[in-house]
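It is worth pausing here to work through a concrete case rather than discussing structure prediction in the abstract. The textbook approach is simple: state the sequence, then state the predicted structure, then interpret. We follow exactly that order.
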Amino acid sequence: MSTSDFRSRLTGLPDALYVFGLMAGLYAVFTGLTVLLNFELSGIVNTLRAITYFSAVYAMVVLALNLHWGYTGLFNLGVAGFMAVGVYTMAIVSGPTNPGPAEIPGLGMNLWVGVVAGVVMAALVGVLASLPALRLEADYLAIVTLALSEIIRLVLNSTLLQEVTVGGATFGTGGATGLTVQNNPQTPVTAFFQSGPGSALTDVAMGIGIDRPTVVEGIGYAIVLVVIVGLLFVFIRRIATSPFGRVLKAIREDQVVASALGKDTRQFKIIIFGVGCGLMGLAGILWYGSDGYINPLSFRPNITFYVFVALIIGGAGSNTGSIIGGSIFASVLFYLPQFLEQNSTPVLDGIQSVLGGSTATPQTIIDAGGALAGLDLTAFLAYCFANISSLRFIGVGLILIYLMQRRPDGLFGHRIETAASIPLTRGDTNE
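Step two, the predicted structure:
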């Protein structure tokens, strides 16, 4: 079988198989790592929970960005800002009116009202920002949206909105100290596993060796996120195959031609910008809101950069690629370095027992290079683990360079995704 024939068969597989195959591979790799490090069952399961959680939340944001950049060609660098709008709105709306000492009160509404309010507010901010911003193109639009994201972060960081009273209701952003999110998206999941049938599941899990209830609750929340990713995938695919979605792709390919065909391209871009920003707000709620605490520092531009890298890996314009790219970035480039850093001591001890060498950490990269030249791999790896946060960016850069040279369209960008919602093939191929 030729390479082209193999690729043709591979690209003809159902989308779900790509995702299941990737996650199975990631689970196998991380399970192997945890077994080698002598993790107990609870630690192994918690590691798999972590990569599922991060893969799901990254997939959500990348799917939302794919609506902008992949489908419509809108270069939106304000992803972090719209996520912040969503989660802060949710926290303020659903926060208790009488919180604990030194905490900022909220409006005391239902959690789901807060979630809807966060999504709507993120979409509304996106629509308002798009009115002047979408008059610009390419790099100029990117600069404006990046500036907007920073404006949002600085406003949330300001002491002016730390705690305000409007119409007798007291609320605020918490300023630089942030907000405690007591009523967050993981709260219902935690409550489920602490009572009724959920508590029985917790008892079963603890009986087989998962001795931490928080791990069981985390697994439940990760499963909820996976379901939401599936729903978003279906929702965005329906948009893509609708007449509305075909206009978006026409705008991406040639806006002048789309306008010449009688389409109000500015109206289409405003609508899809609002929809995408609303989904980014939802991702921010489910991601950062579940941590129980939010701070403006969490929404720096590097988050937007990470999401763009994930989309580039998967391939712009492909929903399956968005999930694949998000999962690869979240597991391999985001979580794996943290995992290795947290477990650097047993890893280095194991390497030393096999290869020998010194576990003393070189102070500079020159010393590390000297250790490598002297075949002291253990000392070189000790330096890498000690500086893994910085080296991660080098790895991301090398991957981007490789993709730009070898696969500029990403892993799935080469696939032709049919714009029609019905098959266009002829029923009888003999005619």
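Step three, interpretation. The chain has one domain: 16-342. Confidence is low (pLDDT under 50) at residues 1-10.
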